[in-house]
Amino acid sequence: MRVAGFGCRPGAPIEALRDALTRTGTQDLAALATIPAREAELTAFARELALPLRLTGVEGIATPTRSERIQALHGTGSIAEAAALSACEPGARIIVTRVTSACGRATAAIAEDKETP
Predict the structure, then answer these.
(1) Which letter, b or e, does each residue of 22-48 get, where b requires 16 or more Cβ atoms within 10 Å of its Cβ?
(2) What's the pLDDT tens digit per position in 32-67?
(3) Are the CB atoms for 107 and 77 separated by under 8 Å?
(4) Which segment of the chain is annotated as a signal peptide (predicted)?
């Protein structure tokens, strides 16, 4: 199972989310994930892709990349990476570290569980 995790600025447009996901180069997703505070930004995009949206906590989840600002605010280095990991099964790993949309308002990362070939 592959999950795309997202972080974004409040009010980020769907185009920014779409661009961030495109930049991951990943297909065959099972779900999208983000923090509860960004549900409004991700709901329409998840509906567009016909994928479930998983809302998850991210505090304390170790991530390959690290933003000092996000660490201070949310207790993790990357909301996108932590949300993707949290929404997958235990033992999941990041296969695409966070990428940023061209406008800078959204990030996406991809995690997969250990069962995915």
Answers:
(1) ebbebeebbbbbbbeebeebbeebbee
(2) 999 999 999 999 999 999 999 999 999 999 999 999
(3) no
(4) none
Confidence of residue 116 (pLDDT cuts 50, 70, 90): low
| Element spanning 40, H or E | helix 39-49
* pLDDT band at residue 117 under the 50/70/90 scheme: low
Q: What is the 3-state secondary structure (H, E, C) of 67-106?
A: CHHHHHHHCCCCHHHHHHHHHCCCCCEEEEEEEECCCCCE
d(CA 100, CA 21): 9
Contact 108, 99 (CB under 8 A): yes
* Token pair recorded at residue 50: 């016909």
CATH topology of domain 2-112: Nucleotidyltransferase; domain 5 (3.30.420)
Domain boundaries, the chain: 2-112
pTM: 0.94
CB 65 within 8 A of CB 98: yes
